[in-house]
Amino acid sequence: MTRSLRSARYGAVLTFVLGGLMVGTMTVRIPALTDKLGLSESTVGAVLLVWGLGALVTMQSMRRIMARAGSRAVLRIGGPLTALGLVAVAFAPNLPSLMVAVAFFGMAFGTVDVAMNAQGSTVEQAYGRPLMNGMHAGWCVGAISAGGLGSLAIAVGLPFTANVALIGLVSLPVMVLIGRTYLPEPPAAGATTAARRRMPPIVYLLGAIMFFAFMVEGTVADWNGLYMRNELGAPEALAALGYPVFELGMLIARLTGDRLRTRFGVRGMLTVSGVATAGFFAVVLMAPAALVAVFAMFFVGLGVATISPLTLSLAGTATDSPGPAIAQAGAMGYAGLLLGPVVIGFISDATTLRTALGIGVVLGVLIAAASRFLPRSEPAAITSSVTLTERETVAV
Fold this sequence. Notes:
With 396 residues, the chain is mainly alpha-helical. 83% of the residues lie in helices and 0% in strands. The protein contains 18 helices and no strands. The longest helix is centred in the middle third of the chain and has 45 residues, at 242-286.
């Protein structure tokens, strides 16, 4: 194995870590942001929506860009821009400037999210074995680190601006440096033309599965704490544990997911993941006490964690150029991340929050059912043994 190929793998993982760290830092310090600018809860919701829509807009436009430029060029520009966007969020002095900053941050991150997954697919195919789950574990590490560093910043009295700006300014040069490690995608004939056409049906199926999975993740992130406190009577400290425990389950699953894929394949893993997500989400909803629900959240995280890495990895092998297919599937997935919490809000207003969260069970069943339409065999690009000579031809 060449040194440059190994460096490309580490660079891709570190990109995921920094992505989770930067996005997680903004999320963790939202209470401090509300204090700084005097924002209401509805205004915070609008700020997060602008960020998400910014990311979604760029994801939707990435098919042609990825086909022409490739993930390496996009990451070398988008990575530093994302760090600068976070710095802009940190220094925004009022709501209008904050809206502009979060829109820029979201749009820059949208390019990075698509490109880092395409880069991960390129590295994975160069290795000739599954690696995507391990890369997505890097995101969990970054998000968990953001929580820990945010808590430390709060403990020592570091204000929102200093905390968020520091993370952005540290991430900026690191993003520039790791740009040297990225691999170019292998040249694909007609990739630009293919980006304009409809993708193969499997890409849209994978996008739908990812949509369901991201709806679950968004639902847990935004509504878990309120459910624990309001429906199960948990104290604030215990209610706040649900999401970190969920993330811990995701981290463990992603660290082991590539080995499990080698043994059971994408179709088998996604089917089991869907069933597990539905089953343990049902346990959360039927839990007699908050502590039981928190424990079950760990297993919901285990169940849902590998779905997005597996779908993106498979999408990357659906066409000659991984970027456009990953951009299409990723945009569909992130639409679920935005839509899920909104749907829960509307249903809970009409019924109860517990009833609304039942959608998590339904989504798990849909994931399991849709996975049965995937091919039984694994893509040759992921499972074939690649010789050293072949690896060297794609290494920088």
